[in-house]
Amino acid sequence: MALVCFPFKKEDVDVVMRNVKTAAQHPRVRMVLLVGASENETYVEIDARLPALGAQCDVPIVQMTQLRLGALREGKGDGMNTALLYFLRAHEYDELFGEPVVSEPLERIHFYDADIESFNSSWITKAEEAADMEYDVIRHYFPRSSTDAQITWQITKVGFSLLFPLSVLPWVQQPLGGELCLTRRCVDVLVSDERVMRQSDWGIDTLYTFVCAQAGMNMIEVYVPEGKLHALYGGLRDLFNMLIECFAALQGLQKCSIRAESVHRIASAEPVPNSVTSKIGYNIEKSLVLLSENWTPRQEELLHVLFPERVAAGLIACRDWPQYSFMDEATWVECYQVLLANFEFGDSDWHELIFKLWVSRVLNYTMRHVIRGYDTAMNELRHMVQDIQQKSAIELIKARREAQGCSPRVLASEQDKMRRVPSELSLFSDEYSSSFKTQAVPGIMNHAT
Ligand code: GDX
Ligand code: MG
Question: What is the pTM (predicted TM-score) of this model?
């Protein structure tokens, strides 16, 4: 039986209560858990309305505030990790959580954002039916507006494609999605991983995705055709923390290796409804202004010293007038590699700089591709990450073979033989041999050194 968790901070309580009721009345759900960021207004109002809702449902509905577990900003990561610990211990007395609430160990935990207006019981059913087929991780994926998900596309998908091109990670549809179901086996893996438990901020979704893949958990992505309608943000500035924390989480993983021998299935998608294709994800006019804000001399210096000159010139010119034509896909990849090598988490100049670089990238994509229609824009995004993945994969395979001592001349004839050998250096993993790790690799793979 399953536990459904809604992490929340400040949300519309009507939406939250409707979602809690949907979950509590689902036949597979044994209990519902609300984990609040603090005892804020939303928390207090939910508390007042829970007894009435509880009377209409047969399963326990528990609300709590998140524990301080991690080492970074107190955010959604602490909320989700609190839920994982609770899930493991809900059937027995526990010092942290008190008396047991259920009699048997819970088998699965589902997470859904509390602010989803299109949530319904089929989301739980789809995940449960997939879990019945013995997948460890079930992720929901959705059709999204072409201007939505710009952290997912420009940061996480680009990063996974660059750093782990042969693993399952570039294939994960929505690697930052907060809607997922995990088995007890998978939760055991996550809570015993220190990297996960310290990630108290927005980086938590990146860590769950990465660690599940690294541990070889079998994954399926189920499709939710109606899409995720949820509380909207205004300008891109609202995404400042999420951007920085999601990038920093990925940067922290860049030296990790990952094998890719787990199963990954993706349920097929369906035609995208007009409600999604016609939606604008962010306010363009408000975002143009962001390029001229919060400049310091040090940001200019960092640009001149570390980035290509056309990027430095283009971005600094934004102090007077917004520009974005310089930040095409190839330039973004160059900047991304500079950021991977040099970005300093916790340094306010670096935070502002990555934010402005990303805003110029999002505006460039919007003005060059989004205006040509939904399908064109989505194709451009897909091609961008596919190209990165392919180039990076080729570099990785080449470097690995060189490290193994294959001269380029014998590569072609050796290729088939190597593919059939299930050695510790599987071609379909991103693991480096120890000799490879010690070598400087030119170009795109300089992260491996
Ligand atoms: N307990 C707790 N503590 N919940 C939080 C906190 C926190 O500090 N901050 C946010 N939440 C809740 C929030 O109330 C909502 O239910 C959910 O987490 C997601 O937050 P929202 O502001 O709606 O995020 P948004 O913009 O929809 O973000 C999406 O991308 C995130 C990401 O990119 O990392 C969403 O899919 C998130 O689940 C995902 O983490
Ligand atoms: Mg939301």
Answer: 0.91
